[in-house]
Amino acid sequence: MEQPIWVAVVLNRLLGKPAAALLAALHIQPSNPDYPIPNSVSMEILVFIVAVIFFLWLKARISVDRPGATQQVMETIITNPMGVGIRDLIRDNIHHGGDEYLPLIGTIGIFILFCNLINVIPTLDAPTATVTVPLGCAVIVFVYYNLMGIAKKGIGGHGKHFLGPDLPMPAVAKIPLQVVLMLPIEIFSNTFRMLSLTVRLWVNMLVSEMLYVIFLGMMLSIYVALAKLGAAGQAAAIFPLMIPLAFIVLHIAVAILQAFVFTILPIIYVAGAVEEH
Description:
This protein is mostly helical and 277 residues long.
């Protein structure tokens, strides 16, 4: 049973009873009846609140003539000279009307980035280090790109790509062969994308978070031990505090990289569903 962090404690005090009633109505038994809202959900809600406040604050300060540093950073995430912004990647892979897919793909990418980075703040957890959060995002991506494929090509047109490449043989032999061989493979391949997206993000963030927390705890223990050794120990105790900075930088790099991967892969999936081949 996980130990609730302070965010979960506060949220359960505010919303624990209605959450427990909702779960009971759905016949779902929470792992901790005293805290029906788990840490991961609590952190997702916190990320959502922080993101809403941040973007409302940013919206009021957007300027075309004199953009601030925060505005420039956020614009760089969307588009930049290196061509690795969300809009740049969409336009590179989806050649007709790609911008219509920016809102959802961009929202998921930025949400995951915020989720990955929030545990740099001590006492907070990264919700993406819990498997259910990446899985939920992966399910949204899976449903989205299939719906976009159906909307673009129709059910029959979208279903054709589940039959694999067009084989140079008579239709009387080709269609049964594609149905028997290619259809199960393509269905498995597309379904496996959810597992791939989930495990890649979850494992990387879990390991990164564990390394960050373990080495931070070790360095703080060494700092406390050295600080008790008098003046020389207190002077030397400064150096252990510098070591976690390297792991903070590493954790931030992993968080950004995993958010990028979880953005580019849905773009590729959408492109495969809506583009003509």
